[in-house]
């Protein structure tokens, strides 16, 4: 097969970039979530004609380039919905994320240009067998995870969770703590947790490390992957975990399951809200109150006042440096520092 290979960030847990693999089309009955597959670019360039490499770097791809990604499912409220199950006899598929989740979209925001289109060329075969994400996950004996947790949840995607996580990490580092940062649910994208590392996190993990392209999988499968991840995270020398639950806990990404698994380890819960009214919606639907509200809803004094009036929960604009002493006070109080 000719053409240049691009290895998306979903391949970062593998050694496929070393080139010891072949590409073989497999019958549909053998397709599964997490399979590594190769797609040939067949669409004209647009602003979505870029993929995230295993290093986290974004690179533009053009027609006839070969991209290595993985079958998965995405269920984004503001962008695109789809999965590998929708790929038909024509073998056409799309990059549902720049990180390399491949499938066929069933719904797309009118604000997005057409997704990057690919033609399925085959499954990646390594060592004489189908290459899958889970095959590259090291086994880990189940260990009780006991770190205190600062939990980030959102009212939707793009509400400000990762931005809030970065600010919180910086404040925890100023308090002299070793910080572990993790994204526990969502659709695989390396640059989110890399940005947490840039903010000062000493260790970073996400569900891709546990072999999942996204966390839209059956609950029992997700729990098994998450417990493997917790066991591996328990082995690092950290004082606190900053954990982001992608999207919102009410979406089919297993956010509620992740929060349940964290249990009493959660000492501080922060809700990143897209608007003030969404705060009451999520807290009512999910049945819990965060310690703090941040995100787009707190961009102005008017937003902060409305959040606090509607919900009775403290709100901070964490992009305003004047809020940092108040944020540190919340962290010190909830974490018992």
3D structure, described in words:
The protein is an alpha/beta fold. The protein folds into two domains: 5-136, no CATH class; 149-335, Rossmann fold (3-Layer(aba) Sandwich), CATH 3.40.50.300. Helices cover 24% and strands 26% of the residues. The protein has seven helices and 18 strands. The strands form three sheets. Strands 15-14-16-13-17-18 form a six-stranded parallel beta sheet, sandwiched between helices. Strand 7 and strand 8 form a beta hairpin. The longest helix has 15 residues, at 219-233.
List the helices and strands and how they pair.
Elements: E1 5-7, E2 22-24, E3 36-41, E4 50-52, E5 58-60, E6 66-71, E7 73-75, E8 80-83, E9 92-95, E10 101-108, E11 117-126, E12 129-130, E13 149-154, H1 161-174, E14 179-185, H2 190-198, E15 203-206, H3 219-233, E16 240-245, H4 255-262, E17 266-272, H5 276-286, E18 292-294, H6 301-311, H7 324-335
Parallel strand pairs: 1-6, 6-10, 13-16, 13-17, 14-15, 14-16, 17-18
Antiparallel strand pairs: 2-11, 3-6, 3-11, 4-5, 7-8, 8-10, 9-10, 9-11, 11-12
Helix pairs in contact: 1-2, 5-6
């Amino acid at each position: 097969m000719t053409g240049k290979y691009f290895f998306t960030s979903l391949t970062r847990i593998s050694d496929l970039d070393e080139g010891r693999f072949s590409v073989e089309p497999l019958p549909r009955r053998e397709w599964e979530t997490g399979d590594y597959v190769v797609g040939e670019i067949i669409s004209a360039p647009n602003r979505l004609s870029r993929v995230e490499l295993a290093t986290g770097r974004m690179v533009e791809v053009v027609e006839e380039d070969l991209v290595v990604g993985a079958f998965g499912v995405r269920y984004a409220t503001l962008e695109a919905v789809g999965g590998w199950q929708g790929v038909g006899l024509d073998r056409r598929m799309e990059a549902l994320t720049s990180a390399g989740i491949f499938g066929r979209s069933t719904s797309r925001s009118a604000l997005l240009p057409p997704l990057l289109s690919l033609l399925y060329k085959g499954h990646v075969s390594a060592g004489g067998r189908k290459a899958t994400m889970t095959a590259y996950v090291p086994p880990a004996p189940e260990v009780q995870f006991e770190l205190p947790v600062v939990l980030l949840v959102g009212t939707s995607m793009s509400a400000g969770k990762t931005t809030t996580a970065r600010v919180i990490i910086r404040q925890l580092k100023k308090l002299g703590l070793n910080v572990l940062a993790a994204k526990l649910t969502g659709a695989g994208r390396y640059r989110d947790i890399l940005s947490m590392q840039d903010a000062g996190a000493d260790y970073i993990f996400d569900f891709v490390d546990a072999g999942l392209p996204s966390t839209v999988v059956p609950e029992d499968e997700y729990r098994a992957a998450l417990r493997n991840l917790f066991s591996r995270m328990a082995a690092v020398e950290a004082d606190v975990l900053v954990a982001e639950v992608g999207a919102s806990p009410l979406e089919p990404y297993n956010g509620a399951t992740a929060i349940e698994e964290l249990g009493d380890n959660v000492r501080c819960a922060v809700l990143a809200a897209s608007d003030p009214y969404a705060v009451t919606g999520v807290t009512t639907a999910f049945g819990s109150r965060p310690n703090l509200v941040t995100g787009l809803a707190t961009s102005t004094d008017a937003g902060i006042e409305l959040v606090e009036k509607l919900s009775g929960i403290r709100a901070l604009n964490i992009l305003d440096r004047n809020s940092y002493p108040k944020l540190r006070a919340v962290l010190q109080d909830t974490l018992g520092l």
